[in-house]
Amino acid sequence: MRRFVTFALVAGLVSLSSAELSAQCTGPGQVTITEYGNTCTFFGQDAQLSGRYDRTTCTLTLLQESSPTCCNTFLAAQVLLLGLNPIVPGAADPRLIPGCTLSVLPDVALVQVRGAGGQWSFRLPTVPVAINVSMQGLNDYFTTIGFSHDLQTTNGLTVSLRP
After folding, report:
1. Tell me, what DSSP letter sits at residue 126?
2. How many helices (H) and strands (E) does the chain have?
3. Euclidean distance between CA atoms 156 and 34, whole angstroms
4. Tens digit of each residue's pLDDT (9 = 90 or more) over 53-65
5. How far is CA 78 from CA 49, 50, 146, 152, in A?
6. pLDDT score recorded for residue 41
7. HSE of 80 in the Cβ direction (CA atoms, 13 Å)?
8. What does the alpha-carbon distance between residue 152 and residue 139 come to, in Å, rounded to a whole number?
9. Does the N-terminal peptide bond of residue 89 adopt cis geometry, omega within 30 degrees of 0?
10. Phi-psi region of 105 (alpha: psi -120 to 50; beta: other; left: phi over 0)
């Protein structure tokens, strides 16, 4: 049931974000964005996830940074993990770069291909009850030497929506 509610919320956000913006914003009464957890280092650089809310357009914009790369290593894709449950202080996953942890129990994953700029925008609807959505970015780097993929995580964000 929880996964259905999360899927319905995300599906609604995605469909609203692609719809034409109306003249009047009727989004949540209050939106709070809180960072938690750590970023992890790849090529000596951290990857950050940050967000801002524009009350005039009801738009939540997230910026997912990636590390500059070298040596035949390229950013292949970026993933935004969304879930209702944060993981604090984070859980190690052997598929990740050592030192990187998952900071959200993902219910939904959104994927952008390389070149999309790491920006995610969602038009937020009115919410009937308070809800917290936790999120974390995941960067997928491809190395042509050895044809390997390395996964790097960002810090976590909790977006609190209030009526």
Report:
1. P
2. 1, 12
3. 8
4. 999 999 999 999 9
5. 11, 14, 21, 10
6. 85
7. 26
8. 5
9. yes
10. beta
